[in-house]
Design brief:
Elements (H helix, E strand, L loop, with lengths): L1 H12 L2 E5 L4 H12 L3 E5 L2 H7 L7 E5 L7 H11 L5 E6 L3 H9 L4 E5 L4 H56 L5 E2 L4 E8 L7 E8 L3 E9 L3 H21 L9 H19 L5 E9 L4 E7 L6 E4 L2 E4 L18 E4 L4 E6 L11 H15 L3 H8 L11 E8 L3
Parallel strand pairs: 1-2, 1-3, 3-4, 4-5
Antiparallel strand pairs: 6-7, 7-16, 8-9, 9-10, 10-11, 11-14, 12-13, 12-15, 15-16
Length: 405
């Protein structure tokens, strides 16, 4: 209790009050009460001297009598409020000056004390309430300034993140292949990739190997944003590193092994990173000379679809996602291709655009693929990929096609 009282006295000692009043019993009572309460009091007897000496930084409270020898207390109030609108002012008035008290309150006075003052507790109550309110206002002002400073820092941080994300997006776009692209064998590849955020956890790539093999893949990394996008960069880097170590897709007899080697390598990479990331993948190679598709899937949903003159159908296949198990049970399958065909592969984000449960979504998607005849622009239009403002998941559609010559 004593410590609290001492803290209160210490807090009050930090406040300097300006008392403007000619010598009177009330003046002596007010000055004595404020001094005993721990305030530093400067007493001046006229308004001109008070206004000339007043500075907001020096005086935290002004108490003025309404009747001064040189100017009215209302004029002192006006000038103080003009110099420092935030400085509280208390007026001393007699019972006969009620109209002046009302005017003082309208001009911004914080309170008034009626003379004669018989009880010092009235002074204590009024001054303490005003100073506590002033201190609270100062604390709120400081808090607002700190909050505004934090908001500015947060805004700058967000802008920096946005610039970083935009730079990452441009870099990721740079890593993607050109679209559309036609290879000498008459195989045309194209894709549409719409990230749900700045960066995508989906990625595709394709390329010509030798004169007859067009290899490709679509990968969908779990999650969204920067971490998933970095994993797609890791996957591309790993495949490019494997290509430097030995020639992939150069010999017909090695195509199947090349596909499984890619899946096993990426699976090992994801397990080794310990990033708690896994991925689904569709990887394949088209032998343009033999008109045959070699492919493998790793947790791919939905399955790729092949469109021929007979309509659209899902390809068969099985294999666990990458990054979850030591062995995924991946298998390479083959499919003979007619003279004219379309191949469509989608990331699972496409299913989020469709109604129903998983089986219903897949059925609707296959219908869209069939009606579009595997044409990328037509399929994107049907799914509203190019017109939607936002996506719940990354959207990627990869198409390959070959027309009869």
């Amino acid at each position: 209790m004593a410590a609290t009282w001492m803290n209160t006295i210490s807090d009050r000692a930090r406040h300097t009050l300006l008392l403007i009043d000619s010598a009177s019993p009330s003046c002596d009572l007010v000055q004595g009460a404020l001094t005993r309460l721990g305030y530093t009091v400067t007493l001046l007897e006229n308004g001109v001297q008070a206004i000339g000496q007043f500075t907001p930084d020096q005086y935290q409270l002004v108490i003025t009598d309404l009747h001064l020898p040189d100017m009215g207390g209302l004029e002192v109030l006006r000038k103080v409020k003009h110099l420092s609108p935030g400085t509280p002012v208390v007026v001393l008035a007699s019972n006969s000056e009620v109209d002046d008290v009302v005017q003082a309150l309208r001009l911004g006075a914080s309170d008034y004390l009626l003379k004669p003052i018989a009880d010092e507790s009235v002074i204590d109550h009024a001054v303490t309430r005003i100073m506590e309110a002033r201190d609270l206002a100062a604390e709120n002002c400081e808090y607002r300034e700190q909050l505004e400073s934090r908001n500015r820092e947060l805004k700058e941080h967000i802008e920096l993140l946005q610039r970083d994300h935009e730079a990452g997006r441009q870099l990721q776009q740079h890593l993607l292949p050109r679209t559309p692209y036609e290879y000498p064998a008459g195989i045309k590849a194209a894709y549409r990739l719409q990230p749900s955020l700045y960066l995508s956890g989906d990625f595709i790539d394709y390329g010509l190997f030798g004169e007859r093999f067009v290899a490709f893949y679509l990968v969908d990394v779990s999650g969204h944003g920067v971490s998933s996008a970095l994993v797609t960069a890791l996957i591309k880097h790993s495949i490019m590193h494997l290509l430097r170590e030995r020639p992939l897709f150069s010999q017909l007899n090695n195509l199947d092994r090349d596909l499984t080697d890619i899946l096993e390598m990426i699976n090992s990479e994801l397990l080794a990173t310990r990033l708690d990331k896994h991925a689904s993948m569709f990887v394949g190679v088209v032998d343009s000379r033999a008109r045959q598709l070699h492919y493998a899937v790793a947790g791919q949903v939905p399955m790729p679809a092949l469109v021929t003159s007979g309509g659209a159908e899902w390809l068969s296949g099985k294999g666990r996602p990458l990054g979850l198990f030591e062995h995924g049970g991946w298998e390479v399958r083959h499919r003979s291709l007619p003279a004219s065909w379309r191949l469509v592969a989608c990331s699972d984000g496409v299913l989020e655009l469709l109604p129903g449960d998983l089986l219903e979504k897949e059925e609707i998607l296959l219908q869209y693929i069939d009606r579009s005849r595997g044409d990328l622009d037509s399929l994107c239009s049907a799914l509203k990929v190019d017109t939607a403002e936002s996506f719940p998941d990354d959207i990627t559609i990869l198409t390959l096609r070959q027309d009869e010559r």
